[in-house]
Amino acid sequence: MLKEKYEKWTKEFMESWKNLDWKRTLDLLSKDVKYYENPIDAPCNRFEEVVKLWEVVADNQKDIDYRFNVLSYSEELCIINWQMTRIMTGSNQKQEIDGIFQISLDEDGLCSYFKQWRYTR
Q1: Full-prediction pTM beyond 0.85?
Q2: What is the mean pLDDT of residues 84-94?
Q3: 42-83, pLDDT tens digit by residue?
Q4: What is the phi-psi region of residue 92: left when phi exceeds 0, alpha when psi lies from -120 to 50, beta otherwise?
């Protein structure tokens, strides 16, 4: 049941990204999420910084396809491996991404901790 909770959240997150519905993506995050866009940088200080990261998605990418696999999980956190292909609209360049999400969900099912590692080719 716990694994299904994480799978459901991740599917919704990835589907909203695929559909370029960044507002729906943001609805999956708690307003006080500790959000790391890059694992070696400090997390976003305010939710508005997370919004700025996501509001450009609909303008700079398209033709998104993805898959993911929950690798490890507990009550406190979940590790997810994900792969994605997308076209960057400015350059019309296809990208392949292999990444890891580390997430924690609060009692309402919203993401309260988000950290990602990714390699783009």
Answers
A1: yes
A2: 96
A3: 999 999 999 999 999 989 999 999 999 999 999 999 999 999
A4: left
What residue numbers bound the domain in which 49 lies?
2-120
**What's the confidence (pLDDT) of residue 75?**
96
Q: Do 84 and 97 touch, CB atoms closer than 8 A? A: yes
How many CA atoms, within 13 angstroms, populate the side-chain half-sphere of residue 96? 1
CA angle 120, 41, 89 (to 5 degrees): 35
CATH code of the domain in which 35 resides = 3.10.450.50
Q: How far apart are CA 105 and CA 111, in angstroms?
A: 4
Listing DSSP states for the chain in one string gives -HHHHHHHHHHHHHHHHHTT-HHHHHTTEEEEEEEESSTTSPPPSSHHHHHHHHTTHHHHEEEEEEEEEEEEE-SS-EEEEEEEEEEETTTTEEEEEEEEEEEEE-TTS-EEEEEEEEEE-
> How many folded domains does the chain comprise?
1
**Identity of the amino acid at 84:** M
